[in-house]
C-alpha cells in the first residue's frame, strides 16, 4: 500500500506524460513556425536578414548554454519546480513577444522564452526517469521523441500558413493556448519534490556506478567513470549532427538542382519526421524489454547508410528514392533517440538525473548546431552537386566514429560490471543497469 501511494497511478502517469510531451512538441513547433517565417519579418522591423536571423539562432544558443545549468537546478530544487516554471515563463514571454514594438524588444523576449524552454527541456527526461513505472520508461521517452518529430514536422507548415494569412504577431501567439493547457496539466499531474525523492530512493549513492557517496560525487566524476554515459552523450550529439546536416542541406538541393516547388520540398522533407515518429515508441518499448545497445547500433547503421547514399548517389536518385533515404535516416534516429536516452539514465545515480538530463538535451542541441555549421559550410564552399557530396561525406565519417564510440561504451561498461551482476538482460550484460525499482 505504501508503494502504491508513492507511484503514480496509470491514468495519472499518462496525463503527466502528456504534459511533458506537449512541451517537447511546442519547443520544436515554435522553432519551425518562426524559422520558416524569418524572411517575412524583415519588413515589419525594417531590418536586414542577418539581424532577423538572431530571432532563431540567438534562441538556440541560449537554450544550448542553459541546458546543463537548468538540469542541475532541477536536481537541487526539484525537477517539477524547474520544469513547470519553464512552462510559465515560456507562455508569458510568448505573449509579450507578440506585443513587441521593435526588433530589440522582440529579441529580449525571445531570450526569455528560450530560458523557459531550456528549463523544461533539461528536466523532462529526469521526470520520466523518476516517475514513470519501471518497464515503461523507454516507451515514454519514445513518445517524447515522437512529440519532437511532430513539432518539427508541423511547425514549418503552420508558419507558412500564418505568414500567408495572418500577421507576424500570430507567429508567437498560435501556440499560446496549447502552452497554457500544458502548464495546467503539468501543475496538476506532475508529482512534487517529495515524491521525486521517494521514487529516486537511492539518495545515498548506493546505485552509483562510480562508488561515490551520493550527492557529494561531482558530476564530472560520474561522467569520467561511466563509459556508458559518456559514450551515450557522444552518440546523441553525433546522431543529431547527422540529422541536422541532412535537414539543412536538402532544402537547398530541392530548390536548386532538383528544381521542385517549396511545397513539394516540404512534403518530401516530412519523410524524415514521420518515420522518426513511428520508430521512436517502438524502439522505446523494445529497449525496455531487450536492452538498448542493439537498437542504437541498428539506428547508427541506418543513418550512416542513408548519409552514404546521399553522398555517393544523390544526383542519380529519383524523388521517391530521396524520400526513401530520408525515411531511412528518420527511422535510424527513431531507433537511437529513446533507447540511448533510456540507457544513459539507467546508469546515472539518482541525485544526478536532472543534470544528466540537461546534458542529454545539451548534446542534442549542440549536435544540431554542429550539423548546421557542417551543412552551411559545405554549401558555401563549393558549387553544384559536389558541395552536397562534401557535406554528406563528412557525415559518413561522423557515423562511423559514432559506431566506434558505441562499441567502446559496450566493452568498457561491461568490464565495470562485477561477475555476480552480469547475467540477465542485454543492458545488464553489456552496458550495465541501475538498481531495479520495485
TrEMBL record:
Pfam families (alphabetical): MFS_1 (PF07690)
SUPFAM superfamilies from the UniProt entry: MFS general substrate transporter
Keyword set, alphabetical order: Membrane, Transmembrane, Transmembrane helix, Transport
Membrane topology reported for the UniProt record: Multi-pass membrane protein
GO molecular function, one term: transmembrane transporter activity
Domain Major facilitator superfamily (MFS) profile: from-to ranges: 16-416
Cell compartment(s), UniProt: Cell membrane
Keyword Transport in record: yes
InterPro entries reported in the protein's UniProt record: MFS (IPR011701), MFS_dom (IPR020846), MFS_trans_sf (IPR036259)
Region (Disordered): 416-438
GO-annotated cellular components: plasma membrane
TM spans (from-to): 51-69, 81-99, 105-128, 140-162, 168-190, 233-254, 260-278, 290-313, 319-338, 359-379, 391-410
Protein name: MFS transporter
Organism: Paenibacillus oceani
Amino acid at each position: 500500500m505504501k508503494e502504491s501511494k508513492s507511484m503514480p497511478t496509470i491514468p495519472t502517469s499518462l496525463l503527466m506524460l502528456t504534459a511533458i510531451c506537449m512541451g517537447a512538441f511546442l519547443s520544436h513547433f515554435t522553432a519551425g513556425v518562426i524559422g520558416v517565417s524569418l524572411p517575412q519579418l524583415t519588413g515589419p522591423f525594417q531590418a536586414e536578414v542577418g539581424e532577423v536571423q538572431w530571432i532563431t539562432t540567438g534562441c538556440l544558443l541560449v537554450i544550448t548554454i542553459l541546458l546543463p545549468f537548468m538540469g542541475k537546478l532541477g536536481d537541487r530544487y526539484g525537477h517539477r519546480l524547474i520544469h513547470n516554471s519553464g512552462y510559465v515563463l515560456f507562455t508569458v514571454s510568448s505573449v509579450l513577444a507578440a506585443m513587441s514594438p521593435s526588433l530589440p524588444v522582440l529579441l529580449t523576449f525571445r531570450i526569455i522564452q528560450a530560458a523557459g524552454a531550456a528549463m523544461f527541456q533539461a528536466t523532462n527526461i529526469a521526470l520520466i526517469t523518476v516517475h514513470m513505472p519501471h518497464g515503461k520508461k523507454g516507451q515514454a521517452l519514445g513518445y517524447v521523441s515522437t512529440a519532437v518529430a511532430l513539432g518539427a514536422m508541423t511547425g514549418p507548415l503552420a508558419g507558412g500558413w500564418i505568414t500567408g494569412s495572418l500577421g507576424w504577431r500570430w507567429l508567437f501567439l498560435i501556440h499560446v493556448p496549447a502552452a497554457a493547457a500544458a502548464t495546467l496539466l503539468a501543475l496538476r499531474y506532475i508529482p512534487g519534490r517529495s515524491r521525486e525523492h521517494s521514487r529516486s530512493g537511492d539518495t545515498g549513492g548506493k546505485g552509483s556506478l562510480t562508488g561515490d557517496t551520493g550527492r557529494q560525487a561531482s558530476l564530472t566524476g560520474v561522467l569520467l567513470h561511466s563509459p556508458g554515459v559518456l559514450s551515450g552523450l557522444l552518440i546523441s550529439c553525433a546522431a543529431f549532427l547527422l540529422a541536422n546536416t541532412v535537414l539543412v542541406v536538402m532544402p537547398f538541393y530541392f530548390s536548386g538542382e532538383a528544381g521542385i516547388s517549396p511545397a513539394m520540398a516540404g512534403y518530401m522533407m516530412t519523410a524524415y519526421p514521420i518515420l522518426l515518429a513511428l520508430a521512436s515508441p517502438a524502439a522505446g518499448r523494445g529497449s525496455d524489454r531487450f536492452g538498448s545497445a542493439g537498437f542504437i547500433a541498428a539506428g547508427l547503421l541506418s543513418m550512416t547508410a542513408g548519409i552514404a547514399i546521399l553522398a555517393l548517389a544523390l544526383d542519380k536518385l529519383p524523388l521517391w528514392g530521396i524520400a526513401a533515404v530520408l525515411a531511412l535516416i528518420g527511422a535510424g534516429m527513431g531507433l537511437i533517440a529513446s533507447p540511448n536516452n533510456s540507457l544513459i539514465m539507467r546508469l546515472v545515480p539518482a541525485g544526478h538525473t536532472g543534470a544528466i538530463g540537461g546534458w542529454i538535451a545539451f548534446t542534442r542541441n549542440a549536435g544540431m548546431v554542429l550539423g548546421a555549421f557542417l551543412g552551411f559550410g559545405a554549401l558555401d564552399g563549393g558549387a553544384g552537386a559536389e558541395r552536397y557530396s562534401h557535406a554528406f561525406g563528412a557525415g559518413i565519417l561522423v557515423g562511423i566514429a559514432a559506431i566506434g564510440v558505441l562499441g567502446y561504451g559496450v566493452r568498457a561498461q561491461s568490464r565495470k560490471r562485477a561477475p555476480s551482476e552480469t547475467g540477465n538482460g542485454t543492458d545488464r550484460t553489456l552496458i550495465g543497469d541501475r538498481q531495479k525499482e520495485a
